[in-house]
Amino acid sequence: TCRLTLPDLLENGGHMALLLHPPRSRNTRDWARNARRLIRRLGADMYLVMSPRYDGQDAARFDTLAELARRLGLPTIASATPMMHHARRRRLADVLTAIRTGRRVEALGRDALANGETRLRSEAEMLRLFPGHEDTVHRTGQLAETLAFSLDELRYEYPSELADGETPASRLRRLALDGLRWRYPDGASEKVRNMLEHELALIAKLKYEPYFLTVNDVVAFARSRGILCQGRGSAANSVVCYCLGVTSVSPETGTMVFERFVSEARNEPPDIDVDFEHERREEVIQHIYDRYGRHRAGLCATVIHYRGKRAIREVGAAMGLSQDTVGALSSQLWGFFAADNLERQRLQEIGLDPDDPRLRQTMDLMREIEGFPRHLSQHVGGFVITEGRLDELVPIENATMENRTVICWDKDDIDSLGILKVDVLALGMLTCIRKAFALLEQHHGQSYTLATLPPEDPAVYDMLCVADSIGVFQVESRAQMNFLPRMRPRCFYDLVIEVAIIRPGPIQGDMVHPYIRRRNGEEAVEFPSDELGQVLGKTLGVPLFQEQAMQIAITGAGFTPEEADRLRRSLATFKKNGSVSEFRTRFLTGMAKNGYDAEFAERCFSQIEGFGSYGFPESHAASFALLVYASAWIKRHHPAVFACALLNSQPMGFYAPAQIVRDARDHGVEVRPVCIQSSYYDNVLEPNERGTLALRLGFRQIKGLSEEDAGWITAARGNGYTEVADIWRRAGVPPATITRLAEADAFAELGLGQ
Fold this sequence. Notes:
Blueprint: H1 6-12, E1 18-20, H2 29-42, E2 46-50, H3 58-72, E3 76-78, H4 90-101, H5 123-129, H6 134-146, H7 168-183, H8 190-206, H9 209-224, E4 229-232, H10 239-244, E5 272-277, H11 281-292, E6 297-305, H12 308-318, H13 323-331, H14 340-349, H15 357-369, E7 373-385, E8 396-398, E9 405-410, H16 411-416, E10 422-427, H17 428-444, H18 458-465, H19 478-487, H20 492-501, H21 504-508, H22 512-519, H23 530-536, H24 546-557, H25 561-572, H26 584-593, H27 598-614, H28 618-637, H29 639-647, H30 657-666, E11 671-672, E12 684-687, E13 693-696, H31 707-715, H32 724-731, H33 735-743
Parallel strand pairs: 1-2, 2-3, 5-10, 6-9, 11-13
Antiparallel strand pairs: 4-5, 6-7, 7-10, 8-9, 12-13
């Protein structure tokens, strides 16, 4: 909470307008003395506030305040002290006060609103409330005009950290060309070189070089610390990002366009999402704070709203409903608050009286509060980095987590203002793959990166075709495992489609079955026009990606690129139901004008609307598909390495450690139990008699055994333990740890059972 004291105002009060509220008590001596001190400091920038109390004494009170203002030499202004925009919100205002203070509405006392008069007023209403003091009302309007502020006045500057003699453009070009030689050691194709030059020219024209340099700095730090990372989203369209090492998918392999990422027409900064290992992301976050300072870097907020059970629970408590009643309502979730007759029936079924006045009022308030903002939380990783002070651009506060600063605006606010945002996200599979790469180098002498894995391995696709995908990124769910044998992926782009198609968007848009029928030759691949054939050809006439939805709108319905981008944004905000429907009339009219029949246009729009539930950009799916291929390749060729890395990266994924161990055994991996003589905290690989690697389970698989205790056990082990008391004496672990080891049968090597 920001608290300004009188000394703060006296010391720093210049360049501000101060509204002075009149004293609440009859003793005005101290108030008048402080007022005169402020007047000497601020002079003409002070006003005495006059506001009604609706107690029948307002007229006399206004005359008294006007005389006080005259003696002090202050102008007066009028205020309705609004607490709500409409009088009908009074009940809800009291409920919010009760929730905030942890009391019932009936116990609020003077904290409850006395009436519904403290609301926003029109000028005409204000003039009626202040008869004889019309100049006070007019002065209020004049003050408001002088204090007018537009967010357009904010001037964001990209951070610039440059070596002597370099401009942002020259440095980005140098790094991109260095990366081109690194990515293409045998020489890049002419297509790639042309794409790179095109991107650099557009980036220079829009002056976005500092943004790319900032992202490069973050990614370079991660690489220097051995932290695996990968950019995703529309950044995968960029050769520059590929050469900088931000992304690992070469854009030349697909049909994506750079303008989906950076566009001159959209007049907005690019947005790069970078995934880091989930166990080490905090290192990257603290690097950003160390590199730029907390006065220049902060995380965006996420607005948490009242929804479902939370609304029921908090409003019910504020209205004095019993815990049993609140629990009964919560058990019904939110679905039955729709039709009144159904509502009455359901309330009776759960033992509540639908005619109870308090219950009815509570349910009305629950509906009213639904969607209200409740509090701010940290965004998962949206960083804003500035050239100057952050607090001169956006409101900030300290986070609950130590050493973090949070911006009090969410990512949509930041995007609207054109402020640079770098998403520093966490992904468990990157942790798993990095640990697997380390094990491959340790035990097989093989060094790999995401970009150097052997491509298009038929054995990998054979494994996926039979849904052997436990632990494999993105395709390990039951829905994906059921779909894999029908999809039968045989190339990388099939994995891109696999990632994108089993999503609520394509499923609700009825895109899955038509695609499979066409892929299997059960249905003809037809296009209503050659133009749409170019848009939908690679997905057999079925729109699967957000980019295709945009292209259908442009090509088929005559949308401008700007209108199509608005459509894309509405697809991205899938939680706001109905946000896509505003384009319906425009879309159907445009399709009809271009000669497409109404049935086809309706079907197209329903498919596009399905993306409102969740639709993937193609570039995002391509980045995820690379992780699908990488994890599947490791599992297919090195199952012991894969299982070990996966277990050491928990918690993540769909499956419990026991299922991962069972799957490893099914793939011929020898799994050795936790052993007091041989195990470490992490799971490790040990040579076996067959000349392969066995998986030795680590102490981390024992529930409740800490990494610290495991460290003491391994550090004190020496040439081995001979008895349980030996472990207790040398390692100094508590009896509870010994018990957990015994329950896990870790003493079998000593000839001791559980």
